[in-house]
Structures are given as C-alpha cells and as structure tokens.
C-alpha cells in the first residue's frame, strides 16, 4: 500500500510541534525514532527528518509528498509547491531593522544602504517592488550582529518577541512578511496519496477547530435563555435542558477561545450562574 511521505524539521523550533500535531491526530510513531525516517504504525505515512531549508526542494522533486515548515522559508526557496494548510504555530514576522539611534521616516532610508539577511530573495523582491536600491548581503546566521561589526547598515530578519533586536541595539521599522508553520504539498500526488492527505487534513482541521473552541455549560433562568442563545450560537444551536429547580435550565454550547472573556461578561449580566468551561479534544463540524 502506498504511503504519504511527510518531511518535517529534524531539529529546531518546528520539530516538536510538527510531531505533536501528528500525535494529536491519533497517529502513532514507533519508540526510538531513528531521526532519519520513520513510519507511523497505524496510519499510512512515512516521516522524513530534514533541515527546514531543504524541505521545499524535496517536496518539489517528489522525494517527500508534503512538508511542514515556516512560510518564510517557503517563499524564500520559491519552489513549485502548493501551500495547503496553515498550522497556527511558529508565528513570526520577517522585518527590517536599523540601529535604534537612527531616525526613520520611510523606506527611502534604505537607499544605498547594505542590508544583511538570510532571506535574499524575499528582501530583493520587496526592495524592487518599492523601487529601493540597496545592496543585499546574504549571511547564514546571527544576522542581528551584522550592523554592530560593520558588515551592514541594517538587517532583514525573523522577529518574534523582539528581544533579539533590542539586545543588539536595533529597532524594527518595517514588516515584510507575516509567517507561521504551514503544510506544503507536491503538485503531482497520485490519487492514492491524495486520499491519504485528505484524511490527514481532516484530522488536523478537527484538532485545530477543537483547540480554538471551548465547551461551555451554565445554568440560567428560563427567562434569559432566549438572549443567551443569541450570544452562544453553538455548532447548530445550544442544548437546553430543564433543571430540577423550576424555571431554571442548563445550557450547553461551544464558544470560541478568542471571544471567551467578552462572552462570559455578557452571560453573567444576563443572570447565568455556575458557568463551567472545558477544553474540547476533537471537533467535527
Ligand atoms: O537547522 P534548520 O535549518 O532546520 O533550522 P533553522 O535554524 O533554519 O530554523 P529554526 O529552527 O531556528 O526556525 C524554524 C522556523 O521557525 C523559522 O523558519 C520560522 O518560520 C520560525 N520561527 C518562529 C523563528 C522564530 N520564531 C524566531 N524567533 N525562526 C527564528 N527565530 C529567531 C530569529 O532568527 C532571531 O534570531 O529568533 C530570533 C528572534 O527572536 P525574538 O523572540 O528575540 O524576536
Ligand atoms: Zn533552516
């Protein structure tokens, strides 16, 4: 039977979360993973452990069928692959940063400057699009020290909390790209592999929808149920069950994590009591 080959980062920021997402989908991996490749024991996939930089090329060539990596790397490598799903982790941005004492008005600042980066393609495209003529100095790592040692005037690098820039006396002045971990796919999957991929994506979506939502239970006077249903629409509509105490009901529904605190305040105002909230493991819409 054919197996879907999935490339993930061997060791780095994406490794653990990539493995976790598969585990949350109920995919079992053998103990003592060899860290080169391994096959799941209960699902037709094989995992290849690679450097993230190499994943787009391997997927383009069909050595791997799909891969998990940061969007920044996908756009930089510019291979013929399709981004098919966003995964919501490893969020970061690719930004331009300059010495903190420099005054910054607009992109013109970068004309005739040297900018150090590990993302020469994305940076050059951005500069061309904005008619800025700067020289792009490609370096492999520790980009943030380039201005301090006189290698460049500015940098273009990945920023997450911003603390690396701060400790190197730099300030972020433009964001070029927002990035998160994504799944890329080869454009020539066989029908059999396409079918496995669809099953995998279905599971990943169920896990992601579940973690974006909470299960909520509350008690409310019957007179408030109509208004509460308006702010807690649930998956179809909330479940309302009578309580032993007359003229009170118990209401069960689903609420988005993002809206949660806002909604709780409204529920309390409407007279809801005994509000219980719990995580959802899987959610099939
Ligand atoms: O060895 P391999 O080539 O596989 O790994 P790598 O060293 O190229 O990548 P790795 O593991 O460092 O990062 C993998 C992916 O994680 C990146 O391609 C991004 O998509 C994503 N990601 C998310 C980050 C960060 N956050 C991040 N903060 N990648 C790098 N950083 C670095 C950044 O380069 C800078 O040095 O962290 C520093 C900035 O962080 P803050 O929090 O100080 O702003
Ligand atoms: Zn890398």
Describe this structure in words.
- It is a single chain.
- The chain has 285 residues and is of the alpha/beta class.
- The protein folds into three domains: 4-89 and 181-210, Periplasmic binding protein-like II (D-Maltodextrin-Binding Protein, domain 2), CATH 3.40.190; 92-179, Periplasmic binding protein-like II (D-Maltodextrin-Binding Protein, domain 2); 213-279, Alpha-Beta Plaits (2-Layer Sandwich).
- Helix content is 28%, strand content 32%.
- It has helices at 15-24, 55-61, 71-77, 120-129, 163-167, 191-211, 222-231, 260-269, and strands at residues 4-9, 37-39, 45-50, 66-70, 82-86, 92-99, 114-117, 135-138, 154-159, 170-179, 181-185, 213-221, 239-242, 248-256, 273-279.
- The strands form three sheets. Strands 2-3-1-4-11-5 form a six-stranded mixed β-sheet, sandwiched between helices. A five-stranded mixed β-sheet has the order 8-7-9-6-10.
- Helix 4 (120-129) links the parallel strand 7 (114-117) and strand 8 (135-138).
- The longest helix is centred in the last third of the chain and has 21 residues, at 191-211.
- The protein is flat and about 75 Å long.
- The model has no long low-confidence stretch (mean pLDDT 95).
- Bound molecules: phosphoribosyl ATP (PRT) and zinc ion (ZN).
- The site of zinc ion has 3 residues, from loops.
- Phosphoribosyl ATP (PRT) is lined by residues 9, 12-14, 51-53, 70, 72-73, 90, 92, 144, 157-164, 179.
């Amino acid at each position: 039977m054919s197996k879907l080959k999935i490339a993930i980062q061997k060791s780095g920021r994406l490794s653990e979360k990539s493995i976790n997402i598969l585990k949350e989908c109920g995919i079992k991996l053998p103990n003592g993973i060899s860290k080169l490749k391994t096959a799941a024991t209960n699902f037709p996939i094989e995992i290849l452990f690679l450097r993230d930089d190499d994943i787009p090329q391997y997927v383009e060539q069909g050595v791997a069928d799909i891969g998990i990596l940061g969007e920044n790397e996908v756009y930089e490598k510019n291979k013929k692959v399709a981004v098919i799903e966003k995964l919501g982790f490893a969020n970061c941005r690719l930004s331009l940063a300059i010495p903190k004492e420099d005054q910054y008005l607009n992109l013109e600042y970068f004309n005739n400057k040297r900018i150090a980066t590990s993302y020469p393609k994305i940076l050059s495209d951005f500069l061309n699009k904005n008619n800025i003529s700067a020289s792009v100095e490609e370096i492999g790592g520790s980009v943030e020290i380039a201005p301090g040692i006189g290698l460049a005037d500015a940098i273009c690098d990945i920023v997450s909390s911003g603390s690396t820039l701060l400790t190197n006396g730099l300030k972020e002045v433009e964001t070029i790209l927002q990035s998160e971990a994504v799944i890329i796919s080869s454009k020539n999957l066989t029908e059999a592999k396409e079918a496995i991929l669809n099953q995998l994506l279905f599971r990943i979506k169920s896990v992601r929808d579940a973690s974006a939502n909470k299960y909520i239970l509350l008690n409310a006077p019957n007179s408030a149920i109509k208004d509460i249903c308006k702010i807690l629409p649930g998956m179809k509509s909330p479940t309302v069950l009578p309580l032993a105490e007359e003229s009170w009901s118990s209401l069960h529904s689903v609420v988005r994590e993002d809206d949660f605190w806002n909604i709780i305040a409204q529920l309390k105002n409407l007279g809801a009591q005994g509000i219980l909230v719990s995580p959802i493991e899987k959610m099939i819409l």
